[in-house]
C-alpha cells in the first residue's frame, strides 16, 4: 500500500466520522457516488474535440483536477470499506491485461472494448 | 506525488506505447473509458441491498477488485496526460470539502448532493 | 414508430439546427451526454435508502422529472442520428430478454447482472 | 402519454411481476441500472473517432440498438414507478431549454455544459 494513499484513507475516515456520514457510505452508495463523479469528469470533455481535450485552458484544468480528486476520494473510500488495496489491485490487473492484450497483436490495430 | 502511483503511471505509459494505443488515449476518450469502468463497478452492486453490499462473497470481492483497478488505471492515465497529480489534487479537494461541509452543520443530518 | 416520439425528434432536430449544434451532435458525443444525464438522474438517489427513493417529495419529483426528460431527449437524438427506432428496438429487446430470462427460472431468486 | 410507450410500460410491469423482480426495482436501483446501461451504450463509441461514430457497421448498429433499447426500457420502468410521463416531461423540458439557450446567442458558438 502506498503511504500517501493510506494517509488519504485515514483522513477520509475521520472526515466521514465527524459528519456522521458512515450511515450513507455503504459500498453500494459509494459505488454510485463514484460513478456520478466520473460522469461529472466526463461532462467537461463531452462537447470538445479530441484535439481540444488535449489543450485545456488553465481554468478548465483546475475544474477537471477537482473532478479527478472526487473520483479518487470515492475510490479510496470504497476500497477502504471493502478491504481492497487499490494500488496492489491495479498492479495485478496490469499483469492480467498484459496477458489478455499481447503487445504484438495490438500494434497499429483497433482498440477493442472487451475487458479494459 | 506518491512513488507507487508514479511507478504505475510509468508502467501504463509503456503498456500503451507497446500497443500503439497513444492515438486512442486522448483525455476525452480516457474520461469516457473511466466513466464506463465506474459503471461496471456499480453494476456489481445495483441489485444488492446496502447491507448485502457490505458482505460480498470472496468471488465477488475479486471481481470488484478488478473493476476498482480498472477505474484507478484510467484515472492515472488521464491524470498523466493532463499533468495533474491526482494525490495532490485529492489532498487539496479535501481542504475545500472541509470548508464547504463544516462538521458541526452535518452531524445526524442529511447527506446532500451538492459538490461532493 | 410512435407519433409522439417522432414529433419530439423533429422538434429536437430543429432545436439543434437553430443553434448550430449539429457539429457537436455526433453519435459519440450524444452517447457521452446521455451517459452524463443518466448519472445526474442517479445523483438524486445516491444517498437515499431504497425506501426513501419510493417516496420522493414533490420538489424532488420535479427535479427527477427534468433529468428523466434530459435522458430521453438525448436518447431520441442519438437514435435519430443512427436511424434506429427506439420503441421498435425496445419491443424486440423485450422478446430477447424473455428468452434469456425465462420466468420460471427467476422467481424468488436473485437478480443477475448479465445482459440486462 | 404515447400509446406505444404505455404498452411497453404495461409489458414491462408484467415481465417484472412474472419474475418476482418487483423487490429489486426500487427507483434507486432502476436509476443505477439505467446509468449502467447508458455506460454500456457509450462503451461502443469510446475508442471511435467522432467521424467513425457516424458510420457504424451493421453488426455494431445492431448491438448499439440493443443498448438503446435497454436504456429506454429502464427509463420507462423508472418513470412508471415514479408516476412521471416521460414524453410529457420531455416536451416541458424542451420549453425550458429553449428559454435557457436562446437560439440567437448560440449560433456558431461553443456548446456549454450547464443544464443540458
From TrEMBL, chains A, B, C, D:
<protein>
    <submittedName>
        <fullName>Nucleotide pyrophosphohydrolase</fullName>
    </submittedName>
</protein>
<dbReference type="InterPro" id="IPR025984">
    <property type="entry name" value="DCTPP"/>
</dbReference>
<dbReference type="Pfam" id="PF12643">
    <property type="entry name" value="MazG-like"/>
</dbReference>
<dbReference type="InterPro" id="IPR052555">
    <property type="entry name" value="dCTP_Pyrophosphatase"/>
</dbReference>
Amino acid at each position: 500500500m502506498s503511504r500517501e494513499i493510506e494517509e488519504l484513507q485515514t483522513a477520509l475516515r475521520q472526515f466521514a466520522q465527524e459528519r456522521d456520514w458512515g450511515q450513507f457510505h455503504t459500498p453500494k452508495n459509494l459505488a454510485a457516488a463514484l460513478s456520478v463523479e466520473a460522469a461529472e469528469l466526463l461532462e467537461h470533455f463531452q462537447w470538445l474535440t479530441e484535439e481540444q481535450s488535449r489543450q485545456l485552458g488553465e481554468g478548465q484544468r483546475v475544474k477537471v483536477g477537482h473532478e479527478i480528486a472526487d473520483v479518487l476520494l470515492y475510490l479510496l473510500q470504497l476500497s477502504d470499506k471493502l478491504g481492497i488495496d487499490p494500488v496492489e489491485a491495479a498492479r495485478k490487473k496490469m499483469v492480467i491485461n498484459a496477458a489478455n492484450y499481447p503487445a504484438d497483436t495490438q500494434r497499429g490495430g483497433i482498440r477493442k472494448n472487451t475487458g479494459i
